[in-house]
Design brief:
Structural class of chain A: alpha+beta
Keywords (chains A, B): DNA-binding, Transcription, Transcription regulation
Largest interface: A-B, 55 and 57 residues
GO molecular function (chains A, B): DNA binding; DNA-binding transcription factor activity
Strand order of the largest sheet of chain A: 3-4-5-8-7-6
Oligomer: homodimer
CATH class of the largest domain in chain A: Alpha Beta
Largest sheet of chain A: 6 strands, antiparallel
Distance between the termini of chain A: 35 Å
Number of helices of chain A: 7
CATH architecture of the largest domain in chain A: 3-Layer(aba) Sandwich
Region (Disordered) (chains A, B): 1-23
Strand content of chain A: 25-35%
Order of helices and strands of chain A: HHHEEHEHEEHHEEEE
Domain HTH gntR-type (chains A, B): 20-88
Helix content of chain A: 10-25%
Pfam families (chains A, B): GntR, UTRA
Amino acid sequence: MAIAKSPALPSLATTKGGRGSLATQVRDQLRTRILTHEWNEGKKIPSEFDLAGQYHVSRVTIRTALKALEAQGLLDIRHGSGAYVANFGTSIRAGLQELRSITDTIREMGFEPGMTHRVVKRRGATADEALRLQIAEGEPVLYMERAILADDEVVAYSYDAVAIRDLPEKSIGEMGKGSVFGAFAKLGIFPVRALAEIHAISSMDIGWGKGRPKSGLYLLLKQLHFLRDGVPVMASDTYFVEGRFQFIIHRTL
Amino acid sequence: MAIAKSPALPSLATTKGGRGSLATQVRDQLRTRILTHEWNEGKKIPSEFDLAGQYHVSRVTIRTALKALEAQGLLDIRHGSGAYVANFGTSIRAGLQELRSITDTIREMGFEPGMTHRVVKRRGATADEALRLQIAEGEPVLYMERAILADDEVVAYSYDAVAIRDLPEKSIGEMGKGSVFGAFAKLGIFPVRALAEIHAISSMDIGWGKGRPKSGLYLLLKQLHFLRDGVPVMASDTYFVEGRFQFIIHRTL
DNA sequence: TCGATCAAGTTGTAGGACAACTATTGACTT
DNA sequence: AAGTCAATAGTTGTCCTACAACTTGATCGA
């Protein structure tokens, strides 16, 4: 095998300590290569052996990365044959089961994300919030009501409650401005998992402002975000205006 | 380490050729052990080394299985520490991203599944069906309209179109009776992946019969089922009556 | 009492080897 | 000439061993 080094492969973990394990980094880079159509749908990607050569890692690491991508529905690995790019239509994009901020998702879909805050305050937790966040009723939470925009059009209304616990007081102001996850990251808080419940809702009491949909039809994503150790940090009820956002789920065995 | 063989571990692949790879079999057995609460939520499961001993397989195989379970949100693997059972509330159960028949899911939730057929016929594909199933308009499809029941209560109405292609004529009758996936399995057809789109729908034209919900509020799961090689075999629009079925999604990084 | 250090345990990565499976080629038979 | 079968190279699946990187709790010392 010739050591044909790919021209523009970003090196692994050169800058800023390279978040996560080697396999994770390889997975993310391979995902990018797949999503940018470096290999056509249904076509075979290089063998594990070749990829190990390209990235200068062991076959074990490559396998771990490939298996992860298979679990996410991007690859189809066949024993004795090779790994193939899963072929759906052209849509695919980011599935719902991948945890990322709404803002990022909107941006990735090619729109300009925006946000307007109607309420940002600190108050005691309601009974429901206390139950979900595993805190006592009345314990302080950061409560927000926001409208989420894509290209200046409202796509969702979100009602969020963040458990304060040992959050520094000054950081609360941060939350009221940009992305919540951005503010989390600055504090070293990284939600790694969310449990979401989905409902269809018809109500005139959800949206506000002039962008409010007349139909009152929403897809409710009732989420609870967890830290690595299972501690819940944020409960958010996000009402997506039906039709303005495409929700996709990959289902695999 | 003592070779303390667990008393009731089903042996791997003793009967009927043992479907799938070793790692897949181990994954399924471990999943069962997790879902039956053999280990409490948040607690550590045995080390990879121990598990390898229990199942008489290599650590690599155990790792592959554990990684798969982590991707499904059942485990949380921490470098240098161990693998922990993910702790959400008690709900969890089967997430939406796991592909399985509605019937099985209902049964697993502790209800008695049922089904009534309103329409089962062979007809030409509509434009939309042709597009989704990647066949020509007018090509024959098996079209069905079914009501899906749990404990004799309607939980969903489903409109399905199965691509006939080289389906034997006699098997079409089978479809009209029990589970569609059961009929598929008998023919050696195994959908391994589905792409689902979610919508909130408010309409009085969906349900029928006396169990029809007065609200007309549904959660629409617009699905397309694929074979391993990416060939679409069934397009189904399933309207779940809002509130009668709990939809859960695990979201991970 | 508090902090640093150490040691044991666990997951992550490496490398080599072989088994199991797939797809293609080429020879052979009819 | 066409079809069948066997050999073969290429690829993923599993095993083994070893060590690196990380976590956790115990130990020791100031």
